[in-house]
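JOB MANIFEST
job_type = single_chain_structure
chain_count = 1
residues = 117
[input]
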Amino acid sequence: MKTMYPGYAPQVILERAAPLDPIQDSGGPSPFFDDRMIVLDASRRGDVRGVALPLLLDLSRRTALLHDDEVKGTDFKDAANKLLDPARGANSAHPFFVPDAAMRADVIEFLRSLQTK
């Protein structure tokens, strides 16, 4: 891990009672890295282990999107518009687009509304 991701320095953010592992913050050079939450043992039954899904909360503070901050904007609205705009190209990373500009603006407003309370 240190070779592939030199900034990797996970820290426990929530201890869970055995048999569950703690939930960690993956840390790293980018404060906006999408894979911030690590769950080593996601099941009480001992099922498949994995990584928690990226959180969609508090997106409005981001100015860069995707796991490597590839899509950048002046603010979240700008970055999200660039991410969802088909002008980015079908061969770009995560080519999920909303062609209609008004619908794209609605999706962006919905994403901005997701807040932690």
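[summary]
The mean pLDDT is 75.
The chain has two helices and five strands.
exit_status = 0
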